[in-house]
Amino acid sequence: MLDFLKKLTDPQSIIHYGGLWLLVFVVFAETGLFIGFFLPGDSLIFISGLICATKPHLLDTSFGIVMLLLIMAAILGNIAGYWFGRKTGEHLFKREDSFLFKKRHLETTRIFYEKHGRKALILGRFLPYIRTFAPILAGAIRLDFKRFMLYNISGAVAWIGSISSVGYFLGREFPETENYLGYIVVGLIVVTTIPVAITYFRNRDKKKSV
């Protein structure tokens, strides 16, 4: 079980051992199931684009199909998160911390949502934790479903389209990029985590000063 969880947090292992459908499932889980907040969404999407350019046999389909499937997974994941939030509502904010649920992630998302409004559903796609909890929060506050879907689809296309395309472009133009995947993954994690950490610590400092 521990070995399987390690593979789920390693984007290269997900693609090498699970192929296209595990890749699609991980994107679905990370974008709407609160247990998926630890999954490596950004780096996985980037690597999928890179592999489509350098080792297309690993996914056995075209880049366009891979990108379309990932966009659909991201949209459906957010819908699942929205309805989960709509059903659980206020009870979610009273839930105690567990191995798979951290209340601070939900609180950070709430603050981010209050600051950016409904745009958080688009901007949050590019930020770990927030992309998992934003649709759940939207459901909990009962955001109109049609408006939610507008932001949901826009965010999925922007997130998947941009990151996977960058990976594909670099793979086509600079195949040697594959040799630096470890550094790229670490860089993506750092860059996307910084805004979330800043939001969290600013809120904590405000609470201490009250």
What attributes characterize this protein structure?
mainly alpha
Distance between the termini: 44 Å
Shape: globular
Low-confidence stretches: none
What is the helical fraction, as a range of percent? over 70%
Radius of gyration: 17 Å
As for the number of domains, it is 1
- Work out the number of β strands: 0
Largest sheet: none
Q: Structural class from helices and strands? A: mainly alpha
Short overview:
By secondary structure, the chain is mainly α.
Describe it.
The chain has 210 residues and is mainly alpha-helical. It has one domain. It has 10 helices and no strands. The chain is globular.
Please give the structural blueprint.
Elements: H1 2-8, H2 11-30, H3 41-54, H4 63-88, H5 91-94, H6 103-116, H7 120-123, H8 130-140, H9 145-173, H10 181-209
Helix pairs in contact: 2-3, 2-4, 3-4, 3-9, 4-8, 4-9, 6-8, 6-10
